[in-house]
């Protein structure tokens, strides 16, 4: 059964969503991220994907106080990403309550550091961020697109011990037009042993059911929840079947 993971994206300590990663297309949904996290927890959710969008732009952790507040005021298992570039960033994230961290840009631009994190903390705590623009890896808050093929990139890190991967098709993110099913099918088919978490484009429960039928282990849901396209009680009902 697929794991449903709500997302909270943070700018200026507020809960926001972007469209296709564009910081100029920002919408603030709630000025109290803890309130949002508690709502998710009350609905039976146990996992949260928390993204520091300020950190992604500034290349270091910024909204660690938001992480700390959510971690101390809920029992959610938090995976945290956005701007983690140094050992100090990781220390702060883990000390503030993250159970896992997601590294994307660092895995591209400084693989030696990312590999050292895998060796030190283990594959259960280090998630690979493999975000794609037209099949190519994008980094630095999605402001740069590389020539790295997303599947080849994932395979490279699977060989180094990573097994948890969050992959977002940027063209789908925040557009409420459905996930990139073809991309996820390709990743699942070509990357043996992967624990894939699909992200971007989820617009209705049928999208989640289809990913579940594809045996995708996890899915991140963001804008569909905030825009009311998916009701939190629908997720609760789905989780109760597990």
Description:
It contains eleven helices and 13 strands. The strands form two sheets. An eight-stranded parallel β-barrel has the order 1-4-5-6-7-11-12-13, surrounded by six helices. The model has no long low-confidence stretch (mean pLDDT 93). The protein has 242 residues and is an alpha/beta fold. Helices cover 38% and strands 29% of the residues.
Q: Can you give keywords for this protein?
A:
alpha/beta; 13 strands; 29% strand; globular
Question: Secondary-structure blueprint of this entry?
Answer:
Layout: E1 3-11, E2 14-19, E3 22-30, H1 33-42, E4 47-52, H2 53-58, H3 64-73, E5 77-81, H4 87-95, E6 100-103, H5 105-109, H6 111-121, E7 126-129, E8 132-133, E9 136-139, E10 144-149, H7 150-158, E11 164-168, H8 181-190, E12 195-199, H9 205-213, E13 218-221, H10 223-226, H11 232-240
Parallel strand pairs: 1-4, 1-13, 4-5, 5-6, 6-7, 7-11, 11-12, 12-13
Antiparallel strand pairs: 1-2, 2-3, 8-9, 9-10
Helix pairs in contact: 1-3
Number of helices: 11
pLDDT under 50 segments (min length 5)?
Answer: none
Strand order of the largest sheet: 1-4-5-6-7-11-12-13
What is the N-to-C order of secondary-structure elements (H for helix, E for strand)?
EEEHEHHEHEHHEEEEHEHEHEHH
Taken as a percent bin, the fraction of beta residues is 25-35%
Write a concise synopsis of the structure shown:
This protein is an alpha/beta fold and 242 residues long. It has helices at residues 33-42, 53-58, 64-73, 87-95, 105-109, 111-121, 150-158, 181-190, 205-213, 223-226, 232-240, and strands spanning 3-11, 14-19, 22-30, 47-52, 77-81, 100-103, 126-129, 132-133, 136-139, 144-149, 164-168, 195-199, 218-221. The chain starts with a strand and ends with a helix.
